[in-house]
Each structure stands twice: as structure tokens, then as C-alpha cells.
Amino acid sequence: MIRTQAWRSALRADPLDWLLEPSHAAVRHLALRDLCDEPETASAVRRACAQAMRTRPIAPILDALSPEGWWLDGRVPYDAKGAKYRGWFWPLMFLEQMGADPRDRRVRRACRYAIDRGQAPGGGFGWSHADSGVPHCLNGNMLRAFIWFGFLDDERVRRAVAWEASAITGEGHERWYPGATSGPGFACGINGGLPCGWGAAKAVHGLAAIPPRRRTRAVRDGLAAGSEFLLSVDPATGGYPAASRISAHWFRLGFPSGYVADALEVGQALADLGKAKDPRLAGVVDLVLGKQGADGRWRNERSYKGRLWTSVDTPGRQSKWVTLRAVRFLRAALG
Q1: What is the DSSP letter of 275?
Q2: pLDDT per residue as tens digits for the range 86-145
Q3: How do the residues of the chain divide into helix, strand and coil, expressed in percent and rounded to 5?
């Protein structure tokens, strides 16, 4: 059962029973673990996880995996045949967000294929096999996936961790590329060379997946710099440097998450670092609470309709996935 109750008084209604319905095993699995404090070894959690691997949305993604370990095109990790969200990097980051079982042979095969063939010479994972194609957002997403799936001890993943930490602080980076990461402090060529809030959210979220005792000094420095950057403005405003106007995506809560970040992901990343109660996140708390319906549920405001290997939510409708994201953060922020 949930041990922490105070946050529930802030909700318009309690969505927990809805999230725990057996009909959606993937959400039930994560809700049992993250909201009910059940360990992964608990029988109810194990049953939900096993059922999740056999049903949507996880099963159709894994059904599309090739015997070799790639999706759609074994040569292109990012934008295969013009279907960006089906190339072999994307399903891995989505499967991590869905809580796919790290022990599954297909998942491990896909991770090995991506690690073997998707790394740039400098250590990062990007949309091409060149260092010029490695942005903070994609490398951060892939780090989080590889760490969740149990590959932190792989030397190549550790190189990607080192790349990310040094790309944030500038320590040890000898060359920058205008097409992607163009300088320290989350500067990004895609954002006109300015620091990118999306990239910062993904990078911090990725490095935060490393257990505290496993974080090197470089990682700790990167996380400290990243946290301060994310909190240098009110994340609820999305007021980070931008080459054009602030993206509306900052204010649209969705699932799953690719290179686009929303204000809630900033809150999630900082919550993973134990910073959920920082008063500078009050605006994110208000934003998230303001989007809750009278029934206690949140809607999916981001549409990937027709672009993923399987449908996840009906755009604009109530979403168990977004509700789970929101409640996880509110629980950490409000206690």
C-alpha cells in the first residue's frame, strides 16, 4: 500500500484504482512499483510485468524486432526509411518508459545491436555514426534506456556516460559540432547554438538513472550543472534560451517521450535526484495539478498517432500513462 499520503489531498480525485486495473498490465506494473512501494520481486509486480510483456503496447513493439536485433532498417538507428519513431533507437527508449522487462531476451538483443552499431567515435549515441550527429537529447534518452536494461557496466555505455558529463561541463571535450552539440552548458546547433532546455532535461534524466554510488565525479559535476540550468528559470514557463519562440510542447503533457520534453519531465528528472521539493519547481506542480480532470485523470496532449509501432493512447483522451507520470512527480514533490 502507499505509505506517503499527503500528496493525495492536493488531487481533485484519486486515480490510483484506475491505474491499478489489471486490464492495462504495463501501467499496473509501474504503479505497483512506484506508487504502492512494491518491490520488483513482489508476486503482484512480477505477474503484472509478465502480462505487460505479452500485451500492448510492449508486445507489438517487440514483435516488430528483427532476429538480428533492429527495427525497420538495420543500417539506420534514428530515421529509418523516413519513419523516425520506428528506427532502432526509438523503440528502446519507449520500451524503457513502458517498464519493459530488462531480462527479456529480445530487449537485450536489441540493446546489444544498438550499442554495437550506434555509437559515434567520441562515445555518444546520435542520429548518425559521426560525432557531429550526437545531441544531448538523444544520448540522454539512450543512456536512460541502456541503464534501465542493465548495461551500465558495458564499457561502451560508460563511454557514452563520460561523453554526456563532459559535454555538459566542457571538461575534456576538444571539438564541438554546429549540427548537434555545439558547446558546453547544453549549447546545441539545432537551437542556434543556444543552450537547449529539451537537451538538458534529457541529459539530466539520463545521468540521474545512474545509482548514486556509481556516479563518478564528472557525472556529479554534470548533474549539478544540469540541475542548476534547469532551475535557472521557472520550468513551467519553458523560458530557456530559444532560437525562435518557446515551444508549445513545454506545456503539453504527453507519452511517450522522444526528443521533445515538457515541464513535467524537468520535474521528473530533478525528482530522480532528490530535488522534487525545490521551491523553484512550484510552477511545475501548479501546471501539473491544473491539468488534472475532475475525475483525477490527465489527458495525453501529445500525438504520435500512426507514427509508432503501436498505438499508445488516443490523442486528447484520458491517459493512464500521463496520469502515472503526473502522480509520480506530485508524490515526490508534495510528500
Answers
A1: -
A2: 999 999 999 999 999 999 999 999 999 999 999 999 999 999 889 999 999 999 999 999
A3: 50, 5, 45
Q: Which residues of 133-169 are buried (b: 16+ CB within 10 A; e: fewer)?
A: bbbbbbbbbbbbbbbbbebbeeeebbbbbbbbbbbbb
CA atoms within 13 A on the CB side of 155: 0
d(CA 248, CA 266): 15
Cα–Cα distance, 22 to 58 (Å, whole number): 15
Question: pLDDT tens digits, residue range 192-245?
Answer: 999 999 999 999 999 999 999 999 999 999 999 999 999 999 999 999 999 989
Amino acid identity at 24: H
Alpha carbon 107 to its chain centroid, in Å, reads: 17
Which residues partner with 318 through β-bridges? 299
Q: Is 88 helix (H, G, I), strand (E, B) or coil?
A: coil
Specify the pLDDT at position 1.
43
Q: How many CA atoms lie within 13 A of 174 on its CB side?
A: 2
| Nearest CA among 122, 127, 130, 120 for reference residue 141 | 127
CA distances from 50 to 104, 112, 120 (A): 10, 22, 34
Are the C-beta atoms of residues 282 and 246 closer than 8 Å to each other? Answer: no
How far from the centroid of its chain's Cα atoms is residue 78's Cα? 16
